[in-house]
Amino acid sequence: MIFSYLRTLYKPDFYHGHGIRKNFFEGWFFKVVDPDGDHVYSFIPGIFFGKKRKNKYAFIQVMNGKTGETFFHRYSANEFTAARDSFDIQISINRFKRDRITLDIANDEQSVRGTLDFSNLSPWPITFLSPGIMGWYSYVPFMECNHGVVSLDHGIEGALTIDGVKIDFTGGKGYIEKDWGKSFPEAWIWIQSNHFDTPRTSVVASVAKIPWLFSSFRGFIIGFLHNGKLYRFATYTGANITNLVLIDEYVSLTVEDKRHRLHIKTKRGKTGVLYSPHGIDMMERTAESLDAITEVLLTDISSNKTIFEGTGMHSGLDINGKIEEIVDGVNRRDITL
Predict the structure, then answer these.
(1) Rounded to 5 degrees, what angle do the CA atoms 318, 320, 321 make?
(2) CA 139/CA 136 separation, integer angstroms
(3) How far apart are CA 219 and CA 286, in angstroms?
(4) In a 10 Å sphere around its CB, with 0-12 CB exposed, 13-18 middle and 19+ buried, how is residue 78 labelled?
(5) Contact residues for 119 (Cβ-Cβ < 8 A; gap 6+)
(6) Are 119 and 149 in contact (CB under 8 A)?
(7) CA of 101: how far to CAs of 47, 119, 170, 179, in Å?
(8) I need a surface site. Which of 6, 66, 262, 326 has the fewest CB within 10 A?
(9) How many whole angstroms separate alpha carbon 262 and alpha carbon 191?
């Protein structure tokens, strides 16, 4: 297990579960949008090992972002295989790699067949001091949940036939991230969009209640990619959240460091319920939108000049758990948590 940990430290997209047989999960999140924005889907392959060895299985979750409809396709753990030297996951005859997914799901609930190829990926930078989006926290082996961003933005070529309807994603955009560990946090907010008018612009933000030794803290990781530069705001960079408010269907977040201020405001869209790991089992408790709308404003603090201002469509948004523990103010009138 130690060898596996060291081998994957600088490869967050790789499978981290070799040698682990209980109390572990790992899942990858592929979001794909066709060029006209008429079809938004997420595909989430993964593996779950419960605290009891018998409670283990592989899965592929599918979400239609336009309707909020979700599907949980369950497979035997024996149908899950993962390469040791690359990001190459296979569940039954479905295969997932950083630059290609091949789907062949056929059951009474849903049919999905086809191949999508990804090009011009924008991975989160990997360095010795910061081996991925989690920064130096990547070196902490007891984190409850680990996070990785495989690609902030990339192109798509190919088509999928979903329930008999062929959808051409060629010319569309994709996004890939992943999580692994023992359980999802007790509370978290997640925002993602790479559909701005300015090409190759992408934002991802995650705020969560993080267990730490015998206590916990509000941790956050935020990245904004624009004009080839990744602006990073995180607990480990010394940035600070100056405002985080949940009002009706909106999340408003402001974060800043010594040089830049980033304001994000996201409006929730149609919501579907996904399964997520919570110790004993995968539970149907993650409320997610894939057609939210995200406004972004990036400002240079010293000059007070606007570096970027725009609106991202087809945004991902999760608001889950005991949100009052991580936000500055809460108004729940129109939100089911």
Answers:
(1) 165
(2) 6
(3) 19
(4) exposed
(5) 99, 154, 155, 156, 157
(6) no
(7) 17, 12, 14, 18
(8) 6
(9) 13
Q: How confident is the model at residue 212 (pLDDT cuts 50, 70, 90)?
A: confident
Helix ranges, the chain (H)? 2-8
Q: What average pLDDT does range 149-176 have in this prediction?
A: 98
pLDDT of residue 336: 37
Q: Structural domains in the chain?
A: 1-182 (2.40.370), 183-337 (2.40.370)
Specify the residue for token string 């606007």: 306
Q: Where does residue 72 rank: exposed (0-12), middle (13-18), buried (19+ CB within 10 A)? A: middle
Write down the pLDDT at residue 174. 98
Q: What is the pLDDT of residue 6?
A: 57
User: Which residues, other chains included, contact 157 with Cβ-Cβ below 8 Å and sequence gap of 6+?
Assistant: 116, 117, 119, 169, 170, 171
Beta pairing class for 187-193 and 305-321? antiparallel
Strands 88-91 and 94-97: what pairing? antiparallel
CB 207 within 8 A of CB 240: no
- Strand, coil or helix: 91: strand
How far apart, in whole angstroms, are the C-alpha atoms of residue 284 and residue 4? 30
Residue found by looking up tokens 């040698």 in the block: 19
Q: What's the pTM?
A: 0.94
311 and 244 in contact (C-beta within 8 Å)? no
Name beta bridge partners: 18: none
Determine the longest span between alpha carbons in the chain, in angstroms: 59
Q: How far apart are CA 299 and CA 261, in angstroms?
A: 5
Alpha carbon of residue 302 to chain centroid: 32
What is residue 138's three-state secondary structure?
helix
Beta partners for 131?
A: 126
